[in-house]
Amino acid sequence: MDTDPAPLHLHRFDAARNMARFYALSLAPTLWGEVALVRRWGRIGTAGRQAIDTHPDAEAALAALHRLAGIKTRRGYTPV
Q1: Dist. CA 62–CA 3, nearest whole Å
Q2: Residues of 6-29 as b/e, b for ≥16 C-beta within 10 angstroms?
Q3: What is the per-residue DSSP string for 14-36?
């Protein structure tokens, strides 16, 4: 994988709503030559949930990572 960005960690806090959430994005190679976009999210302090989306190449996975990061920052998440 030639494009290997550092994992992206985002947090969102809202004291009025008792909200403390995290969202993490990272890329990882698969055994079959694809690239996996690993997404983790949940309340800060918990293990949270995880989803893995596979993409045919690093460029497609990186585009998906940037798209999701943009969506989350528009919803109020900030990089840690």
Answers
A1: 8
A2: eebebebeeeeeeeebbbbbbbee
A3: EGGGTEEEEEEEEEEE-TTS-EE
Backbone angles phi, psi at 51, to 5 degrees: -135, 145
- What is the tens place of the pLDDT at every residue in 18-75? 999 999 999 999 999 999 999 999 999 999 999 999 999 999 999 999 999 999 999 9
Closest CA to 54 of 30, 24, 72: 30
Predicted TM-score (pTM) of the model is 0.88
CA dist., res. 33 & res. 35, Å (int): 7
**38 C-beta neighbours (distance < 10 Å), count:** 16
Terminal-to-terminal C-alpha distance of the chain: 25
